[in-house]
Write a structure and sequence with these properties.
Helix content: 25-40%
Largest sheet: 15 strands, mixed
Number of strands: 26
Distance between the termini: 87 Å
Number of helices: 9
Bound molecules: zinc ion
Strand content: 25-35%
């Protein structure tokens, strides 16, 4: 009798485990073998259509990550050997770090600053809803109220951009210069994490970029809010990767020879002895001492997911920060295609370029708008928050020569993926006054 009960009990446990396995992993396995190879084929075909467009500016273009964390943050272990190879691999020229401060007295610079293998790093802080880069040696006093901190930093030549645009901010504060218009962290907040993790595990490291895109939603209310703020004054739109490389399971040796397991948010979860049971999991320590790594988010995946493309004279902090403040940048979902070469500009009566994205240009100097792109798609012209024109798909160029009024004009470029339009590029606006 007991044997029978035991048998049925273990069979039902096995059945439940199998069910759980199917629920958790079958969508990921389907993605791995059916959906992602199809998407990969489509995106390779799209990327092969690349044509270098004419250059409409003297400025150079640099790709950058503007909200990213390193070892200085309590929830990241990222060091140069994690960050720099990732940046090099996906063509990131600069990283403006936003580490969490250790206390109310926040000394800048700290952590990394300067050029590392050609990648420019500038330290900054994420606190009180700000991404800030003072761009000078200073101590930020976070015990002051937020508006005073913003006023002090901006008056001294630094940058205050609002992080996490889904959260409450003093939007009427006259000092902040920009806001996140797309953030991976914001986008992922409304997802159920277990299916996402199941998908990551089942679809494998090779499909990490497609797995990351599973959480993608167009941030329509944030974009609409940004449009409305821009009718009041210039608010620069930028993208945030919020990379920590911390949604992982890793292990390393402690000095006493035991093994420390580190889980999500870089939090130690257990310390164990090595044994015949776990030794097979471990490899030789890498440059950071890890002997086991199961990575969900990586710097490489984040940097390649969404990228800021800044027009600037040189790859230097003064030039990049100057053009960041002006809004001479656009953002692109780079894993879909590299948007280097994209440009949105205004032209005057003589057909000469009178301004580029981010600029404020007098109405009498704006006769038309021109947009060029290295890859084909659908252009959408947005005026004061409303789509006023949509081109056909598959276009490399776009012109608008209808009557131009005072107000704010920006461009979105969408591409077809699985027969659906998805946004690929968001430009900053040209302000016509
Ligand atoms: Zn962050």
């Amino acid at each position: 009798m007991i044997k029978k009960i035991l048998k049925y009990f273990s069979l039902s446990v096995l059945g439940l485990l199998l069910l759980l396995f199917l629920v958790l992993f079958s969508p990921g396995l389907w993605n791995r073998w059916v959906v992602y190879p199809k998407l990969e084929k489509q995106i390779k075909a799209f990327q092969s259509l690349r044509k270098e467009p004419e250059s409409l500016t003297e400025l150079n273009i640099y790709r950058g990550a503007l909200h990213s964390h390193s070892f200085w943050s309590h929830d990241s272990e990222g060091t140069l050997s994690d960050i720099i190879p990732a940046a090099k691999k996906v063509g990131i020229d600069f990283i403006f770090l936003t580490d969490h401060a250790h206390s109310n007295s926040d000394t800048i610079p700290r952590g990394y600053q300067g050029y590392y293998d050609g990648v420019l790093i500038e330290p900054g802080t994420e606190r009180q809803g700000f991404c800030t880069w003072p761009l000078r040696s200073t101590v930020i006093d976070w015990s002051l109220d937020k508006d005073t901190v913003a006023k002090n930093i901006v008056s001294d030549g630094g940058i205050i951009f609002y992080a996490h645009s889904e959260e409450d901010h003093n939007w009427r504060n006259p000092y902040y210069q920009g806001m996140e218009i797309y953030s991976i962290h914001t986008d992922i907040k409304d997802e159920s994490l277990l299916p996402l993790i199941g998908n990551f595990i089942a679809s494998g490291a090779k499909n990490r970029e497609w797995s990351m895109r599973e959480s993608f939603d167009e941030q329509t209310s944030i974009l609409a809010h940004w449009d409305s703020l821009n009718q009041w004054r210039t608010i620069v739109g930028f993208s945030a990767v919020d990379a920590h490389e911390n949604q992982n399971f890793r292990a390393r040796y402690l000095q006493d020879g035991r093994v420390e397991w580190v889980g999500p948010n870089a939090k130690p979860i257990d310390t164990v002895e090595t044994s015949i049971l776990n030794r097979w999991l471990f490899h030789e320590p890498d440059e950071n001492g890890w002997i086991f790594k199961f990575m969900i988010d990586t710097y490489e995946g984040s940097f390649n997911n969404v990228t800021n493309y800044v027009f600037a004279d040189t790859l230097s902090v003064p030039s990049i920060s100057n053009h960041l403040k002006k809004g001479n940048l656009f953002i692109a979902f780079k894993s879909l295609g590299d948007a280097k070469g994209f440009m949105f500009c205004s032209k005057n009566n003589e057909g000469k370029v009178s301004g580029i994205l981010g600029d404020s240009v007098e109405l009498n100097r704006v006769k038309s708008f021109q947009v060029v792109s290295p890859l084909p798609g659908q252009f959408r012209l947005i005026y004061n928050g409303k789509v006023v024109d949509t081109s056909s798909e598959g276009q490399y160029e776009y012109q608008w020569s209808e009557q131009i009024r005072k107000g704010v004009y920006r461009i979105e470029m969408h591409i077809k993926l699985n027969d659906e339009f998805v946004p690929w590029v968001y430009s900053n606006p040209i302000h016509v006054f």
